[in-house]
Amino acid sequence: MEHLALLPPVKLPSGLREKILKEIAKKEKGAAVFKTVAFGIFSLVFTASSVSAFIWMVNTVRQSGLGSYFSLIFSDSRIILSAWSEFFAALLETVPITELIVTLVLTLASLWSVSMVAKNIYLIRPAIVIRK
Phi/psi of residue 56, each to 5°? Predict the structure, then answer.
């Protein structure tokens, strides 16, 4: 530290701090714009994919006969109570697990990417404060 005391003090140019802060803000805004565009594209892709996965899941549920099990639940519950273990085993065999998982994952990814778009839009253009 002794050698630093021997150096003369350096005078910084006027406005240097403001220029640095403006450049940092400009870079942060550029990154936010990039993220907004990227997550916007992701949200469109995930939303379209989740809609097609939902249609796929609905068609699979129709083909599996899952609806007939639910109609049996609401029509005659005595049959279900008498043979509940066989009923629930048969019900689990007809549930399209893969389609449900794919639809759920794509829907959650779509919601997440939309939330990231909203977050980054706020960083690009902060909320307008209304003063009374």
Answer: -60, -45
**Opening angle at CA 58, ends 117 and 44, nearest 5:** 20
Average the pLDDT over each of 2-6, 39-43, 85-89, 102-106 and give the range with the smallest value: 2-6
The more confidently predicted of residues 14 and 38 is: 38
Give CA separation, 27 vs 7, 22, 38, 122, 127, in Å. Answer: 34, 9, 17, 16, 20
The two counts, helices (H) then strands (E), for the chain are 6, 0
The residue count for the chain: 132
Residue pair 33/93 in contact by the 8 Å Cβ criterion: no
Nearest residue to 84 via CA among 96, 72, 100, 67: 72
Among candidate residues 90, 95, 92, 111, the one with its CA nearest the CA of residue 42: 111
The tokens describing 129, both together, are 């404060």
Whole-number Å distance between alpha carbons of 48 and 3:
65
